[in-house]
Amino acid sequence: MAIYIYRGRPDRLIRRVMLLSLLLMFAWGSVRSAECKDLFETHTFILKGKTLALIPSDLDEKGPSEIVVVSRTGTYPSEQRWVSIFSADDALTYGPLPRQRWKVDHDAAMFDVGDVAPSPGKEIFYVAADGIRYYAREADGRFSNQSRSLLKLPTAAVSPAAGDLPRSGLLADWQQNGRPMMM
Questions:
Q1: DSSP strand E in the chain: where?
Q2: Secondary structure letter of residue 1 according to DSSP
Q3: Mean pLDDT for each consecutive 10-residue tract of the chain (183 residues)?
Q4: What is d(CA 168, CA 182) in angstroms, rounded to the nearest whole number?
Q5: Does the chain have fewer CB atoms within 10 Å around its N or its C terminus?
C-alpha cells in the first residue's frame, strides 16, 4: 500500500485538481455531444395560417411517427381549420409539405388521435355537439376527408372559441392497465 503525501502548497493542489476536473468534464462533454448529435434533427414544415396543435403519432403502426398538425387560416368570420399529416420517407426525413390535408368539420370542439374504430391503425377523432366522430383510414393508407360517426349522443361539447381546435387527452390509460380507453 502506497501513501502519497503532497508537500507543496495546498492552493496549488486545489488548482491542479480543479484544472484536471475541468479538463475531464470538457473531454466527457465532447464525447457525449458527439454521441448525442444524431438524436435530434430540425425539420421545416410549410403550412399556411397559425398552428393550433401538433401531435406526433404512429398512425399506421408500421414505422416512424407521422405528425398531425391542426392549423387555422383566414380571419373571423371566414376562418377555416385544417388537419395536415406529415410523413417520413424511407430515409426517415419529413418533407416540408403535408402528405394529406383537409378541412376540419365546423362542429369539431376537441380532437385527439387513437385507435378508436375497427379499421387498422389509429384514427383522428373529435368531439362534436352530437357525439364523437372520426376520420377513417382508407385502403390506400390515406384518411377520408369525410368524418364518420363513432358514438351518437348529446354531449356537453360546444364549439370552441372562434378559430381554435384544442387537443384533448380523450384517449388515455385511465384505469392504468396498459389499455387506452376513451374518457
A1: 50-57, 66-73, 80-86, 100-103, 110-114, 123-128, 131-135, 148-152, 171-172, 181-182
A2: -
A3: 53 67 64 56 81 87 85 87 89 87 87 84 85 87 88 66 60 63 59
A4: 11
A5: N
Separation of alpha carbons 131 and 112, rounded Å:
14
Cell of residue 105, nine digits: 368539420
Cis peptide before 77 (omega within 30 of 0): yes
Distance CA 103, CA 23 (A): 56
Which three cell numbers mark 37? Answer: 448529435
C-alpha cell read off for 176: 392504468
pTM of this structure: 0.64
H helix intervals, 40-157:
none
